[in-house]
Specification:
heterodimer; A: 122 residues; mainly alpha; 87% helix; rod-shaped; B: 253 residues
């Protein structure tokens, strides 16, 4: 069995080194979306505590219209951002699976190189 | 097929392994059933919504409490309040089943490593559990607990939603005064919906993180087994042989 193969056996594949970063990035993004959602819920609670007449009659520049603007516009970027977080986690899973493939290939080469010697030794 | 012998595990690991082996299949099946049932409930709610919106705006907003129009409205609004949380609960059960299946794979790898070393009569080396192996079960459990909690919150939200919409729109809901129970219910409904959906995704994110960590644990286990095989060759070259049967006092097969 070559020294290169022994060294390769002990090395961690690059894809495996990236997995924690993708998982952490995904959790951070989803955590941010949750925190922003909690902030939006306070805005929604304030806005919908107004009567319908007050909400419908709100003038340009008023606090109520500002709240409505936020409530209607935030989902447009918040929704895709949630999926960005999930995609980052799925990318981490994909990289994990790829690094399993790489490790299995190295393991296969190690078994091919060593089993004959092991069985001879037995 | 007879199971391979494995190393002695601590109580916590024995519990986790036992739970994973028995629970992965029921969780997967339950998850699939929940998602399928959600689809049919969604279909029935959509029929109610369709019947409701078939009426003109004037008729809908003037419909009296107890009329079929208001009953339809209450039905589909309450279903739309709890159904997404029920669907995500189904996804949680499926992802938890997948994570437990990965834990079962890890157990099989551990037993294989132990049995192969024993059969080769070499020192049995069980590598230390990696940090990913310690972390993935609690992360998976957190994700599952979050989605169970969101389902319960969804049921509570459905109760508030049903209570709110069981009124005449034109003469009660639209003219509700500031500080009234109706406006407080509307504020509660919209506020809860604002953070409930992100919380659903946070639960799914935790479950996916658990799966990622479990897969990384499998990769580390495969790597450590390859490294051990290299070390075994060196041990055999150096003439290190261990008679496990003699050590344990058993007669060889």
């Amino acid at each position: 069995m070559s020294e290169n193969l022994e060294a390769e056996t002990r090395r961690t594949p690059t894809a495996a080194k990236l997995v924690p970063y993708f998982v952490l990035a995904g959790l951070t993004v989803v955590g941010f979306v949750l925190a922003y959602g909690i902030f939006l819920s306070t805005v929604a609670a304030d806005y919908y505590a107004l009567t319908k007449a007050a909400r419908d009659g709100a003038e340009a520049g008023s606090a109520a219209l500002g709240q409505l603007e936020l409530l209607k516009s935030a989902p447009a970027w918040l929704e895709p951002l949630k999926f960005v977080g999930l995609v980052s986690l799925l990318a981490g899973i994909g990289l994990s699976l790829y690094s399993i493939v790489t490790t299995l290939r190295v393991r296969g080469r190690v078994m091919a190189a060593t089993l004959a010697e092991v069985l001879e030794g037995k | 097929m007879k199971e391979l012998e494995g190393p002695k595990l601590g109580l916590y690991d024995r519990m986790l392994t036992g739970m994973a082996r028995t629970m992965w299949a029921p969780l997967l099946v339950m998850g699939v059933l929940v998602v399928i049932i959600s689809f049919f409930i969604g279909l029935s709610a959509s029929n109610a919504a369709s019947a409701y919106f078939a009426n003109s705006k004037l008729v809908r907003e003037a419909a009296e409490v107890g009329s079929q129009i208001v009953i339809n409205k209450v039905y589909f609004e309450t279903v739309f309040a709890w159904l997404p949380t029920f669907k995500f609960l189904g996804m949680a059960l499926i992802f938890s089943g997948i994570t437990m299946l990965l834990a079962t794979i890890l157990d099989a790898l551990r037993r294989t490593g132990y049995s192969v070393q024993k059969s080769l009569n070499v020192n049995i080396v069980i590598p230390k559990k990696p940090w990913t192996g310690h972390l993935f079960p609690p992360v998976m459990m957190m994700g599952l607990m979050v989605l169970i909690a969101t389902f319960i919150i969804g049921l509570v939200l459905a109760g508030v939603t049903g209570s709110y919409w069981n009124h005449v729109i034109a003469t009660q809901l639209d003219v509700a005064e500031a500080g009234s129970t109706l406006l407080a219910q509307l504020a509660t409904i919209t506020a809860i919906k604002a953070w409930l959906t992100p919380l659903l995704f946070a639960g799914v994110a935790l479950l996916l993180a658990g799966i990622g960590l479990a897969l990384d644990t499998i990769r580390r286990t495969l790597k450590s087994q390859a490294v051990r095989l290299v070390d075994v060759v060196h041990e055999l070259r150096d003439g290190v042989v261990v008679d496990h049967d003699k050590l344990s006092g058993r007669r060889p097969a």
